[in-house]
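HOLO CASE FILE
Compound: zinc ion
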Amino acid sequence: MARREAFLEGAQSAARLHERLDVRAEVEARAGSIDVFGAIIALGTPLIFRPLEGLLGACIPGPGVIISTERPLPIQRFTGAHELGHIALGHTFSLDGEEILTRMGHNSGQARTPDIEVAADSFASAFLLPKWLLQMHARRQGWNRASMSDPRAVYQLSLRAGASYRATCIALERHDIIDAKTRDALLATTPRSIKAELLDGLAVENFFPDVWLLTERDEGSTLEGQPDDLFVLRLAEQGGAGYLWTTEGLVDSGFAILRDRRDIPPPEQAIGGPVTRALTARRGEPARGRFALELRRPWIKAGAPLSALRVAYDLHGKEVGLPRVKRRDLRLAA
Ligand SMILES: [Zn+2]
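Model generated. Tokens follow.
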């Protein structure tokens, strides 16, 4: 089989499985990421997360899919999508290491990659990061094709798609949304520098946690992250008319507000114009829940707010042991 055929076979198989499992409608309803582990379970394949040395994942007849607990959730999800590809494509056995994260597609010149690995890689990217998912998040955020050469937008896209920054850059090029040169320019920027810019001098212990930038455009979305992730909320406030964002919703949901300030436009801009309320918050422990912030006049508690930001979150981070979706089925602690 030619490499190009293997690549196409993987992508087509991913699209067929999306249809079979009705993935798109479910993801659009939540405005979140694709449930890779749920898909593995839906195909009747046992799935478990264990410490693995020198491997990210494996697909073994009998035991099923094993994914390493040594890497963060986005890598576990990508590994899961790769192993799901082996299953969907009828491959019987595979042991996969770091190499699955660095291959860039059929035209990348890595000629010695076996065809079944080319197909599983192609499946993984197409299943986890299909074009329609990237377009859905771009539409919600008001991003266009040009925005996708901005590392800050691509990083935020990667968080919403539940993939690494690197995998997202590669997928954008595979879908011809950016060219190879733009992909390489994006990959030359580290998420660390983007995180530091967002935190704007706020002291953190290290830059491993992700930093989400949330605005009114995230209304109704589902965020899946790690316990230590930081959330920078930038919300337009109309203090002149008496409308302020309430923050009780964050605190009631267990978040600590690390910084709360207002960015007031300079006087030469419209007086009484919108002020940006900039909040930085962190949950700090594994948790699932929701929070709602509302733009309203503080002295009027009743009635519909002028605007709202309501999100669902799952900050359990990486998976260990049985998949969480399975534990919920078994009614054990999530
Ligand atoms: Zn493989």
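CASE NOTES: Residues 3-20 form the longest helix (18 residues). The radius of gyration is 21 Å.
CLOSED: yes
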